[in-house]
Amino acid sequence: MIAHLPAKTSFLRQPLHLCYSVLFAAFWLYTGLSTPDLKNWLLENTLSMVILLVAFYNILRFSDTSYTLIFLFLLLHVYGSQYQYAENPFGEWLKVQWHLQRNHYDRIVHLGFGLLLAYPMHEVFARGLGLRNFLGYLLPVEFILSLSALYELVEWLVADVAYDGARQGMVYLGMQGDVWDAQKDMGLAFIGALLAMCLTLILRRKRVQAVPKV
Fold it and tell me: How far is residue 126's CA from residue 121's CA, in Å, rounded to a whole number?
C-alpha cells in the first residue's frame, strides 16, 4: 500500500509540511537551549536526516503519511538528545511506574526507528525503483537492520573519540551496564521494521480486495 503522493508543488504551498517544519524547529531549539549537557546534544543532533530531506525535497517527494512518520521519529530522537538517553525523564518515569531496572527510552527510540521509518523506505523502493513485489517489503527491513548496525559503530567511534574512552563515553552510549545493549537496540529496530512492513502488506491486500471487480 502506497499512500497518495502530493504533487510537487512548492514547499510554501504545503501547509502540513510547513507545520511540521515549524514545530520541529521550535522543539529542536527548545531542547538545545534547555539541555543540561550541550556537548551531548550537539553530538546527538547531526540531523543528517533533516539535511537529506531538505536537499531532496523537490527530487523525492514522500507522501504525507511518510512525512508524519518521519516527523514523529525526529521528535522522539530530539527529545532523547535533550538529556543523556540513560537519564531521559520519560524513561525515568516508566522505570518508576513499571519497576524497571533501567531507563528504556533508548529502546523506545530504536524500536521507533524501525517502526516509523520502514514505510518511508518502502516508498523509496516502490516509487524510485519500481519494486512493488516482495523485495519492496523485504529491503526496507534489511536497510533498517543495516543502518542500525552502522549507527552502533558510529556511536562507538564518537564516544571513543569525543570522550577519549572516559566513563562519560559509556554514559553517552547508554549501555547502563548491559553488555548486549547494541544487539538489543538493533533487534528492536528490526522488529519495528518487520511490524511496519507486515502492517503495510496487510493494508495493501485489504485495499486491493476492497476494489470492486469489473
Answer: 9
pTM listed for this prediction: 0.85
Has residue 5 been placed in a domain?
no
Q: Which domain holds residue 103?
A: 13-202
Is-contact 18 11, C-beta < 8 A? yes
- Count the domains in the chain: 1
Between CA 131 and CA 197 the distance in angstroms is 14
- Among candidates 122, 13, 9, 131, which has minimal Cα distance to 70? 122
- Asked if the structure places residue 126 within a domain, the reply is yes
One digit per residue, pLDDT tens: the chain, 214 residues?
555 555 567 888 889 999 999 999 999 999 999 999 888 888 778 755 666 676 567 777 889 999 999 999 999 999 998 988 888 999 999 999 999 989 999 999 999 999 999 999 999 998 878 887 889 999 999 999 999 998 888 888 877 776 666 666 666 666 676 788 889 999 999 999 999 999 999 998 888 787 776 5
Query: CB under 8 Å, gap of 24 or more: what pairs does 151-160 form?
Result: 152/182, 152/185, 152/186, 156/182, 158/43
Residue 53 in domain: yes
C-alpha to C-alpha distances, 67 to 2, 19, 76, 79, 107, nearest whole angstrom: 13, 11, 14, 18, 22
The answer as to whether 123 is a domain residue is: yes
Alpha-carbon span 105 to 191, nearest angstrom: 16
Q: Write down the residue that cell numbers 529502546 correspond to.
A: 107
